[in-house]
Amino acid sequence: MRLLSLIRKEFIQIIRDPRTLAMIFVMPVMQLFLLGYAATNDVRNISLVVFDQDKSPQSRELLDAYRAADYFRLDYDVNDEESIRYLIDSNRARAAIIIPPDYHQKIASGRVAQVAFVIDGSDPTVASTALAAANLIAQSKSTAIMTERLAARGQAGAIQLPVETRTQVWYNPDLVSAYFMIPALIGQILFTITIILTAVSVVRERERGTIEQLIVTPIRSWELVVGKITPYVVIVFIDMIEVLVAGVLIFGIPINGSLTLLLILSALFLVTTLGLGLFISTIANTQQEAMLSAMFTMLPSIYLSGFFFPIAAMPLPLQWISYLMPPRYYLIIVRSIILKGSGAENLVEEIVALSIFAVVIMGAAAMRFKKRLD
After folding, report:
1. Engineered SS bond to 342: which of 39, 229, 258, 346, CB 3.0-4.6 Å?
2. What confidence category does residue 357 fall into, taking pLDDT thresholds of 50, 70 and 90?
3. Does domain 46-159 fall into CATH 2.40.128?
4. How far apart are CA 36 and CA 181, in angstroms?
């Protein structure tokens, strides 16, 4: 009964604070749209400058091949290389194609026609996409021209290549970035909101002097801890469901695994995050200190967990440090369950790691919190 009264009191405090409610329920939706639409590596419609010195049907066919691919948008048609430099330097275009004046003659005579492709490398993501797309389109066009030449000679069968690669992409066939980012957003919400709210709520009680009033009541220390964190557990699970529903309805993300398993392992991860928030509340004396301490904890965890950047691409020392970040394991779990449909047997290492973190962190936080109350 005492515990239920404490939980009810905490819910009332949350409802009376509209700023906290806004952060809890509006922020996840904002992050969903920002990460789903803005944080993407799917580069399309790269602005392209065309310098066609040939002006022949053959050169127009080549440009049609680039126009047909949605990687490029043929925005500018110029007559000199200085115009190309100006458009790229002024960030109006990201790439340029230069077709030589003898292009159609070399194609007709069976010789190699060299086409220049200039790429702005100031943005590596766009540049790498433009480079790969330019080469792929050129190779496709070259194969088509070679087929036409052999067909004209009655040797169309000679175009048969000795090796053929047939690719197959599992789980995310269209390579949509949102499929990768949205499940990870669940991990970020669980991690950030629980740490901040738990740390700040306990420190707020201390600042107002109400925690001393609670201490002198018959409430035990464990009841105080459970009463403080239970409302935030409920709220975070509501946020999690909110993101899942929005991800499915808005971005069409398939949920291929067990939602029950996802909720169970999310609860295991929550023990770790709540422990971190509780631990921060024992070392912070003000809400500002609690916020700064929470940010100090969250930033390296987010950047080294594989949320934004692949861990395999990081320097080796940072990869070693990432093993100390609980979100690293949870992001693997949530992405594997949602996208791959993995079961618990496929996630044994991650489950064991999270269990160790949960016991150690929550144990240390509870002991320190109890000592602080005493």
Report:
1. 346
2. very high
3. no
4. 7
